[in-house]
Amino acid sequence: MLMKKSTKHIIIIGAGPGGLSAAMILAYRGFRVTVFEQKKSIGGRNSALRLGNYTFDIGPTFLMMDFFLRELFTLAGKNIESYLKLIPLNPMYKLSFIEKELNVVSDHDEMRARLAQTFPGNEKGFDRFLQNEQQRYSKMYPCLRKDYSTIFSMLHPDLITALPYLSIGRSLYQNLGNYFRNELCKLSFTFQAKYLGMSPWTCPALFTIIPYVEHAYGIYHVENGLHSISLAMRQVAQEHGAVVHTGQKVEKIVTDHSRTARGVVLENGEIIESDAVIINADFGHGVQTLFAPGFIRNYTPARLAKMNYSCSTFMLYLAVDTLYPEPHHQIIFAHDYRKNISEISYKGILSEDLSMYMRNGSILDKTLAPAGHSGIYVLVPVPNLLSEIIWDENKIAFYRDTVLTLIEQRTSMTDLRSHIVAEHIITPQNWWADFNVFNGATFNIAHNLLQMLYFRPHNRFQECKRCYLAGGGTHPGSGLPTIYESARITVDLISKDSLLWS
Ligand SMILES: Cc1cc2nc3c(=O)[nH]c(=O)nc-3n(C[C@H](O)[C@H](O)[C@H](O)COP(=O)(O)OP(=O)(O)OC[C@H]3O[C@@H](n4cnc5c(N)ncnc54)[C@H](O)[C@@H]3O)c2cc1C
User: Buried-most residue among 76, 203, 392, 395 (CB within 10 A)?
Assistant: First the structure.
């Protein structure tokens, strides 16, 4: 389809997944698009870390609901296969409990058989889980795809029809009790709350759609690492004429007397005019820093202080000179997972009995490290910066040691320390200082019902005209697929709204 060129200029603040997704579609639709990214490289949390010849993903390591990403490329007039190789994962991941291990597979018959073997009797619940959660998902899916800029959007028939499926007042963990009796089996379908940085014991039951979509549609690795998605998006945006500046921080959004965004001021003082601005910067950070003092009326510092935030993560990226026979994705559970989650989410203390996620990159993707070597990515959920934990040198050294000991004890990597040739650590403090993640809450503002749909910051930002949001802090939420969807919703709003701009 040949798109008619628009004279409208859209500035995007941030080249994270939300900003780049919006850039490629808007540019294809003929808008003049300028992206300003403060860092020297693009991708935000979805960028690469290189330690010599080893390549790590900083943040996302797997893609679910691949169809959202595929749709974005189609909407940008491109075939995703020309840019990215998506590799379905089977097994999807290994779950390591003290007592048992379970390789979670995407084939339903095989999964049922594995459940029968590992948690006898619980396999019967698997079919009910798939059947019931398919219904919930089919009701929720249209609701994910809508814009909730006005309170009337909450009266949309799709949402009203979905209401009984929200299971209001029930948690993900409680809901799983409908299907499985064995405690570890329940955890095998509830730990996904951590993808949102939440506790399964308080995460709304409607998020049972997350384990459901994993089992229904599978999960994917992307060859060369997930950060390749960001690189591909920038390429598509540039092929359509978007200009992507790196190392250029936006200092402020310029607004006029009618509270309308008119452009941005860069760090060097230069003013760039535009017809609209999209904020992709982390929500809490952006709203606090990008507007003139006093401009924001609703999301004031006092309001931000009262909001709920996801947990943070302590990250270890280890370049090792050997290739261990460990799975690509693995989750190692604490002895007492509930206590561990409670320490992260409510008590604000560092667990000694901790859980972690680990990726052994080269077992699947040989491009990530030299032959026979691997990059080990370790993500440990920890309290965000609203806790009183100070990440000083001693604390970092202690926690690194705790994590390495756990890996050496619970996996075949018994001599891990002796194979580390380079490493990098990111703490909650680094997430805030280096990545501008407000409160170090890596998975953004929480997804409790009072911070979702109309109650989440709107895609058409309610504080400022011609200002929009794309990213994890707006609707629908903070995982890659929902961030892609946030960008799609936002560009559709801009395409419509711009028809009325003079
Ligand atoms: C450790 C980790 C693991 C994760 N794993 C997964 C996973 O496996 N699968 C999944 O689906 N999701 C995962 N996520 C969640 C989610 O995919 C990421 O958080 C996502 O990358 C966030 O995208 P974003 O567009 O909202 O923001 P960001 O990636 O934070 O991008 C915002 C950009 O704005 C820039 N910026 C900020 N302020 C300014 C300014 N003033 N001027 C110019 N630029 C500015 C920043 O530098 C940044 O590049 C993970 C997240 C983390 C942190």
Answer: 203
